Amino acid sequence: MSKYGFEKIERDISKAIKTRNGPTPQKPELPDSDLDQQLLAYASKELPQPVLYHSLRVFLYSVAAIKDYFPHWELDHTVLFATCLLHDIGTTDKNMKATKMSFEFYGGYVSREYIYELTKDQDFSEAVFEAIIRHQDIGDTGFITTLGMILQLSTLLDNVGANTQYVHPDTVDYINRKYSREGWGGCFASAIDRENSEKPWGHTSQLGIPDFRDGVAGNKHQYFTQ
Length: 226
Ligand code: ZN
Prior knowledge:
This protein is mainly alpha-helical. It is built from eleven helices and two strands; from the N terminus they run βαααααααβαααα. Strands 1-2 form a two-stranded antiparallel ribbon.
C-alpha cells in the first residue's frame, strides 16, 4: 500500500468502486498538522476564494468517499490535502499569464516545485504532480493512481454533479454549508472559457467546446438537502 497513492486503479470510477453499498452520512474535517496549515496558508494566498472553497469541498468529498469505499487505503491525508488544494492553481491569473501550457499541466508543475521545496520528498511532489496533470483525463480505459482517481471523482461531483451516488446527500449538504459554492459554477465556466480562448490547443478542449463549459454553468445538481 502506498501513502502517496502510487497503486493502479481503474480510471473508470464505476469499475474502481466495486460495492453497491450506498454512502453513509459523515462530517469530514480538514487536517491540521503544521504541514497542513502551511499548505492551507499557501493556497489561501494563491487562490481566489471561490477556487479555494471548491478545493476544500473536493478534499472533504474525497475523505468521505475514501471512508466508505476504500477504508483499506493508506493514502496520507496531507498528500490528499495538498493535491486537492493545488489542483486548480493553474487557473489563477498569475499562472494563466505565465504559460502556454494547459492549465492543469502547468499547475501540476508549479505544485511539484512547491511541494518538493517544502518537503524535500520526491514521491510526495510527484504524486501531487501526476494527480493534478490527470485530473481532467476522464475515460473508461486503463489505470490511474488512487490519488488521481479520487481527485477525478470529487472534482466532477463539485463541477458537474456527477458521482453523487458516492457521497451521501447529508455529507454534501454539510460540506457545501461549510465552504459555500456561491458563484462557483460561473467562476469555473469563465476559467474554462479563458483557457479555451487563450490556449485553444489545450487539454481542456478534449472535454468538448462548449459542452464541458455548459455542463459546469448548467449544473442543476441539488447540493443541499433542503
Ligand atoms: Zn477543480
